[in-house]
Amino acid sequence: MAHYVVEKSPALRGEITVQRSKNAVLPMMACCLMTRDCIGLTGVPRLADVDCMASLLGDLGAQVTRSRDEMSLCGADVSDYCTGRHWVERMRASVLAMGPLLARLGRARIQFPGGCAIGSRPIDLHLKGFAALGAHIALADGCIEAEAQRLHGAHIYLDFPSVGATENLMMAATLAQGTTVLENAAKEPEIADLAELLGKMGARICGAGGSTVTIEGVTALHGARHAPMPDRIEAGTLLLCAAATGGDVLLRGAQESTLAAVIAKLRECGARVERDAAGLRVRGGELTGVDIETLVYPGFPTDLQAPMMALLCRAQGTSILTEHIFENRFMQVPQLRRMGASITVRGRSAIVRGVCELHGAHVSATDLRAGAALVLAGLTAEGRTVVTDVAHIERGYVDLAGSLASLGAPVRRVE
Ligand code: EPZ
Question: Which of 65, 71, 124 is nearest to 98 (CA)?
């Protein structure tokens, strides 16, 4: 099992290009199920979750190939509507195959998705939407099966602006008969990016990225090429690492518009963040505590709550972080306490009292973003930190250790 060895870091300096977005790429890959043509995605990050989605699509009959910077996904031979048990257990985003399969084949079956480290992760909103589009939903031997002769347009109100449900229903509705309106849709930028690819494929969507999305069903979709947006969560993670070490870093490709909440909070706690022609420039300083409430976009992203907590462990004063999105997303707390952090959890809130010093320790990554938080904490801790179970981290970061090392951080990956 690989692990990261992290020593206390000097101020990070230099510049780095942000990877393209994992959370934009995963639904885009599923779009290949909806056309007999090929779609091309450029700059697809080399991540475990991307490989997992490629394998799942291959099992369904799609051909997924990579050459240099281009991924080609061809759905001509897609025939199977059943994703195997192991895919959903390995990666929640496998559920994003349901909408495309339902639209293309009229059937979709997935293993009933269990929870994961950060929460129960139900898909009731996905299924309620599929039923509104005319699908019959059945549960049998641990599987969920959706079936429809032909999907029809519907007016769907999402009880919660779920990112995955918005994406799944938007994809399914592109081939439904008639018009679909999604009310209270998620507004995360990855949704507008997905709609841009679908539009290039011939779909007729308007309002994506806002809370009301309208989809005019068409009879067929065709091939297209697309370059997914930069990864705002990787960019935010690197911003926080640079600020935590008092560094001066230029993040090429980082988009101010998709990180407004994070930038505002970084400025509030004393860092400087400026827009640069190439992206964002961050300079650290003496950091003071701030309060954070994770909210749906454009609020503070839940995916950066753990890395922000790690930064605030060394800020002056007290911070209160409240996690409104997932019910179990403080898994990094026991690990940060092993490094000397002073954190009290009360329900959905964590009270962080800044300490003068963290000290290196052996800690384990329990999930993707908690793992990134431990690396950030290691950069500011005295002595050596060993982060184990880094496979979690490598599901979402192409090379976090290498990226940080290129900015001067003493971080190395050890098999
Ligand atoms: C997406 O997950 C992201 N994953 C997550 O990123 C991200 O944390 C999350 O959105 C929130 O921004 C991908 O895009 C692949 P949700 P998703 O449906 O779609 C509840 C990472 O670290 N809910 O918006 O699963 C759910 O339980 C990952 O990159 C229902 O109750 O998120 C949760 O409490 C982690 N019923 C809340 O909504 C449903 O049918 C947000 O879930 C669906 C969701």
Answer: 124
pLDDT of residue 84: 67
pLDDT at position 85 is 65
Asked whether the bond before 161 is cis by omega within 30 degrees of 0, the reply is no
Tokens of 233: 């969560």
Sign of the dihedral defined by the CA atoms of residues 177, 179, 184, 188, in that order: positive
Distance CA 50, CA 223 (A): 20
**Which pLDDT value is given to residue 251?**
98
> Phi and psi for 274 in degrees, rounded to 5?
-125, 150
Closest residue to atom 10 of ligand 1, CA basis: 163
Residues 157, 244 within the same domain: no
- Residue whose CB lies within 8 A of the most ligand 1 atoms, among 120, 233, 325, 366, for a mutation test: 325
CATH number where 321 lies: 3.65.10.10
What are the residues facing 387 on neighbouring strands?
4, 363
Q: How far is CA 2 from CA 13, 17, 114, 159, 395, in A?
A: 26, 24, 26, 41, 13
116 tagged catalytic: yes
9 and 133 in one domain? Answer: no
372 lines ligand 1 (CB under 6 A): no
If asked whether residues 171 and 235 sit together in one domain, one would say: no
Q: Alpha-carbon torsion 92, 96, 99, 103, what sign?
A: negative
Report the chain (415 residues): mean pLDDT per 10 consecutive residues.
Answer: 96 98 98 97 96 93 92 92 75 93 94 78 94 95 91 98 98 98 98 98 98 98 98 98 98 98 98 96 96 98 98 98 96 98 98 96 97 98 98 96 98 96
Q: How many whole angstroms from its chain centre is CA 218?
A: 29
CA 211 to mean position of chain CA atoms:
19
Which structural domain, as residue segments, surrounds residue 332?
3-15+230-414
